[in-house]
Design goal:
It is a single chain. By secondary structure, the protein is mainly α. It has 2 domains: 41 residues; 43 residues. It has 3 helices and no strands.
């Protein structure tokens, strides 16, 4: 009887771990999809992926610089205006 309970708990934990893993994988896929949509929304869908990656790496360097908070503020404002404009046109 004790062995059956241990086996049941073990299987339950395994099933819970699989569920957690699937949930995390789905969240990861959703995040990647959202980021891809941003590239398209910015009008960069026709660019080579290496160009987009280079742009993002340069942006990351700016965010990590002394002026990072200022860059973040500027880009947030620009993105917010673009989103508001897109919503107004919809």
């Amino acid at each position: 009887m004790a062995i059956d309970i241990i086996y049941f708990k073990s299987n339950r934990r395994t099933a819970e771990n699989r569920l957690d893993k699937r949930t995390m994988e789905r969240a990861d896929v959703r995040r990647k999809y959202e980021l891809g949509e941003l590239v398209l929304e910015a009008g960069l869908g026709g660019e080579l992926s290496t160009v987009v990656l280079g742009m993002l790496l340069e942006a990351k360097a700016k965010l990590n610089s002394k002026e990072g908070q200022e860059w973040r503020r500027r880009w947030w404002a620009k993105g917010d205006r673009a989103r508001t404009k897109a919503q107004d046109q919809a």
